[in-house]
Structures are given as structure tokens and as C-alpha cells.
Write a structure and sequence with these properties.
The structure is a single chain. The protein is an alpha+beta fold and 126 residues long. It has helices at residues 48-65, 86-95; strands spanning 3-6, 21-24, 27-33, 73-80, 103-108, 118-125. The protein has two helices and six strands, in the order βββαβαββ. Strand 4, helix 2 (86-95) and strand 5 (103-108) form a beta-alpha-beta unit. The chain is globular, with a radius of gyration of 14 Å.
Amino acid sequence: MKLEIISTDKAPAAIGPYSQAVKCGNILFCSGQIPLDPATGELVASEITLQTERVMDNIAAMLSAAGAGFDDVIKTTIFLVDMADFAAVNSVYGSRFPNHKPARSTVAVKSLPRGALLEIEVIAGL
């Protein structure tokens, strides 16, 4: 199957040897997003709600670049540094999926790049 690299300047540039997203057939694999401002490449405020909003905006930009949206998301994985943030993250996350509920995993991790409080990756159907 042919792979197509998806890239947009409306989401943060990759900070390592990976792509923002890769399309394989009719499936889009989006790399995990941490709360980086795409314009500055810097981490946004240290408050979990603001970080979650930024992550979801970054995901929206990648989905849009591939011609998709949140209704096309099949599976998500959320990585949290502190499970005490689960309710706040869930509230912001849920607002992006008002009618469609993709499969999801949420796991606690010791740390994330750049001191982020969360990271979210998605898989979407196109």
C-alpha cells in the first residue's frame, strides 16, 4: 500500500524523526500531539484544560489537512502524566466528540516530551 505523508503548518512541526500524520489507504494515523503552539513551537500554559484545548486544536488541524474531522476518528489514545487530570481532560475531549464516540484508551505515564501534561494520538478513517 502506498503511504502519503500529511503535513500542515497549522499543527506543530515534528520535533523528531517522524511525520505529523501518515495516510495508508483509507486510514489516517496521526502522531501523538502534545500542547505545542504551532506558531512558536513552545508549550502552552501549564494548566491541563488549556493544554488539552491546544492538543485538540492540533489534532483538528492534522485531520483537516487530510480532509477529515473528528467524526472520522476511529480510535484515540490519551497519555496522562497525572490521572487526577482525567476529568478535566475528558471534559475538553468530549466537547470535540458530541455525537461520535471513538474507541479510546487512557494510560498514565511517568513523563512526556517538553514537560507536557498530556499527549493524544488518533486514528481516523477517510
